[in-house]
Amino acid sequence: MKWQKRDAAPALIRELAERFGLPLLDASILARRGISDPAGLLYFLEDDTRFLRNPFLFDGMEDAVDRILTAVDEEEKVLVFGDRDADGVTSTALMVEALRSLGIDASYRLPSEDEKYGLSRRAIDEFAAIYGSLIVTVDCGISNHAEIAYAASLGVDVIVLDHHVLQAEEAPPALAVINPKLAASGYPFRDLSGCGVAYKLYWALRFARSGLYKQQIALLNVRPLNDAYLLEAINLSNLVETGRINETIVPGMVELERTRLVPFLRDRQIFVWDGELQKRLLAKALGKGAEVNFYDIRQDVARIIPQAAGASLLRLTELSRMGKYGQSAPTELDTFASLFTSFALRNAGLNGEADMDALQLVALSTVADLMPLLDENRILVRQGLAAFNKKPRRGLAELMARQNPTGKRLSAIDAAWQITPVINAAGRMGEPETAVKLLLAEDAAERNAHADRLLALNQERRSLGADCWESMYPIAREFAESKGGKFVIVGDPAINRGITGILASRFADTFKAPAVAATFMADGSVVGSVRSARGFNVKGLLEHCAELFIDYGGHDAAAGFSMPAERWPRFVDMASAYLSNVELDEGEELIDVDAELPHEYLRPELAELVDRFEPYGEENPPLVFMARNVGIASADIVGKTEKSHLKLSLDFGKHKWPALWWGAADRIGRDFSASDRLDLVFKLSKNFWNGVESPQLIIVDARRAERA
Description:
- The chain is an alpha/beta fold and 708 residues long.
- Among the domains are: 132 residues, Nucleotidyltransferase, domain 5 (2-Layer Sandwich), CATH 3.30.420; 90 residues, no CATH class; 98 residues, Diaminopimelate Epimerase, Chain A, domain 1, CATH 3.10.310.30; 115 residues, CATH 2.40.50.460.
- 39% of the residues lie in helices and 21% in strands.
- The strands form five sheets. It has a five-stranded parallel sheet, sandwiched between helices.
- Helix 5 crosses helix 19, helix 8 packs antiparallel against helix 14 and helix 18 crosses helix 19.
- The model has no long low-confidence stretch (mean pLDDT 92).
């Protein structure tokens, strides 16, 4: 293994530490990870849900909300159509709950057994037959052009909530398409999970029940400037800024009607901060005869945000945290807009306790679907997991009782190992509706029964995976050897559809090469999964073979496809030709080191630093530290079935740390002895034993110290 610590400019580290009030070690890690832009730093340093992006930034959000509100008024039946994986299951449960909370007769459907991914004509026909009139797709729909057009011919509207990449030139002909990966979505962050997209509509529907939905708002502020006055205003619609104006007025030089303010403020509800002061300043700027009808919002805000009571906008601007994250210093008007937004959200009951159940689903979906833990995904996951650990929502509580009986606080990585695979198992084994029922059932006994069924399905999936591995491994090995170990492609009717992804992942891990695992279905189709290795982007392969597929989609590291069985030989040829020419990462495995720590830094408080960078996962891997010349206080070989691991006590002077080195039993006595001192790279984790949580080190690599 090669250890690499990226360069970070000392001047940049000092600037980050001073501007954002960070310890130098935190600032150096952020700089080394390339996180120095104020907008990106916000999501590493702030937890508050008020920093989440406004759903009405989506161009189609108002259309979707209006159509659903019409369904409420007309007492229409609405179908939520989702996907069978954990993202689709959580999306479906969240959207059904959102619609039912509005009084809508909402049902749901997911592909089960051998049904293909995405909205089907059969589902549309059966829904239209019971006089259903609106379908909301979640975590799917972006590729269902023909099906959505067919639904329209039957008088059924479709709203698409998806996050997969659009493969066609145009979006499907739905009433509204909400997808952050559309070039024209209007939304500034493209990597929400499917459930994250559903959450945005859920949020927008809740806001629509407040008195501010579609209200045209103007925030006005007047302040003196030497011998003139600055009149500044922001226009808001659904709390999204739609315009901003600054007008400098010299008293006696211009009448109000001749300023740009009049058309800018026309037909809007105008709010000010400290109405008496604003009235006096307006009179000085425009003359006593000038009249502007406004409402002083300061007292209303103070009732909900007490710390704002009696304070001027200038003082609140000096205290604002938001100023740290802007490209320029915030103005009083910026502070006013931030205060008004926080007030409106709290007044509407948004971003509070009522959202915590929904955020738990969003957090799990984001982790399960390997979404990058950057930008607002960090707050969504952090807040969702905090709520999950504090009080799991219905359905998840029953899973927690079975998967985590000790009550250990789960991290994002823990959830990815213990919770999301069980939810995924339902879809892989052809029963995704069992997982949705678990999340929606009102009756505790029913939820417990569904939880038991999910665990049984998960065990069945694991057994199938073990059996299939035994029979498919020799075939995969032979194929890999014939291709020089560069890639693996295996297709066989004996592979259960529910484990193609698991099998492809295991092939990729075992052979350190991109892998495809596929099964032949009874309906004459082939369904397959692709997994990445050594830096390979699987989307390139799928795009190369797109002409063969009925459907395909996924992410950079994992994807899936379906095709007619007769095209399989051609796929193998095309994929082999493509993969043979792909450059894969070669050479020694590289370990990125976030910081080299002096021995005195190895104290229990280091765990607090590690917590500050949670959640860990895609594009935010766990912190890796390096230390030199570390003594070994004790060394033991451990393991339940095979004694293959090293358990060490490492001496850092004032503190000794327990450490585990997985699969490294053969290193001691060969590469170093217990009397040697070590240079090592390691992660910090938490060991949970008998109800007590304690920090420990997980060694990634080590070698004899370069200096004694």
